[in-house]
Write a structure and sequence with these properties.
The chain has four helices and five strands. The chain is α/β, with parallel strands linked by helices. Strands 3-4-5 form a three-stranded parallel beta sheet, with no helix packed on it. A two-stranded antiparallel sheet has the order 1-2. Helix 3 packs parallel to helix 4. The termini are far apart. The relative contact order is 0.11.
Length: 128
């Protein structure tokens, strides 16, 4: 990703020796990868901004990496605007949750029940 960004930077005719100047001012969108430390060693990673199958996968992989052996609990909202393939995408995330060994899954939203496929430890909360 960094090489791609630097290639684009150079293609725009911008000086590569100043690329870090702009990069130091980049900030993530609110609710994208926010990390909150909890008492007792807990950790909350808020990655709730406009999730899609690619960002959801990345967030779950990041969670497993950050958890470093701690219990992993996820609260996942439905991914919206996926069209006719919505159920398939939610089922793919369910498979990833199993593969990663996520201990507890709380699913929020009507389509989010797809995350709970075959799980005994999940909780589904439909849209209000």
């Amino acid at each position: 990703m960094v090489v791609g960004a630097l290639t684009a930077y150079e293609a725009l005719g911008l000086p590569l020796d100043r690329a870090t100047d702009g990069a130091s001012r980049i900030s993530m969108s609110r609710w994208r990868g926010e990390v909150h430390e909890l008492p007792g060693g807990g950790l909350v990673v808020n990655d709730a901004y406009n999730a899609n199958p690619v960002s959801m996968r990345a967030a779950l992989l990041d969670l497993v990496d950050r958890a470093a052996g701690r219990r992993r609990v996820v609260i996942l909202g439905q991914m919206a605007e996926l069209g006719a393939e919505s159920q398939r995408y939610h089922a793919e995330i369910a498979s990833l949750l199993d593969e990663l060994g996520i201990e507890v899954v709380i699913a929020v939203g009507d389509d989010a029940d797809g995350y709970l496929s075959g799980r005994a430890d999940g909780l589904g909360i439909p849209d209000a």
